[in-house]
Amino acid sequence: MSEWSLVDEQAQVAFGQQFAQAIKQGALVFLHGNLGAGKTTFVRGVIQGLGHQGNVKSPTYTLIEPYEHVAPATYHLDLYRLGDPEELEFLGLREMLADESLMLIEWPERAGDWLPAADIECFLAYQEPGRQIRLQANTDKGREILSRLSA
Predict the structure, then answer these.
(1) Boundaries of every domain in the chain
(2) What pTM was estimated for this model as a whole?
(3) pLDDT tens across 126-147, in order?
(4) Which CATH architecture group holds 2-150?
(5) DSSP E strands: which ranges in the chain?
(6) Half-sphere exposure of 25 (CA within 13 A, CB side)
């Protein structure tokens, strides 16, 4: 497990951009943390780091926000308001998981057993004045990404 202290929102976005540069292919990334811990801020940095120029909004009400014009194609999911894990089938998540996209999933525990194991789990927590981020690689792909991030 690797750990970083990020002093403010700008540092969170910058770290997300660094993380994006370590991504060479699709991956499944789970984001854990309390409300307001900075999950969407980190995701904004990742998506901007992949080349997206517009806004990066939280998909709290839509559950999923696609960014298919970046490489790898990226999907940001916020499962906080998920009523039932079966809803994920109707969103087409099974197909998204089958291709080589980058999946950034907030509140993955709401999916129950529906999701496979994450390549990387990201744990965000308050640490005055900013945030602490811990990254845990669970697969060879995840370890490869983290090795590029630490290099």
Answers:
(1) 2-150
(2) 0.92
(3) 888 889 999 999 999 999 999 9
(4) 3-Layer(aba) Sandwich (3.40)
(5) 2-6, 27-32, 64-67, 74-78, 102-106, 120-127, 130-137
(6) 9
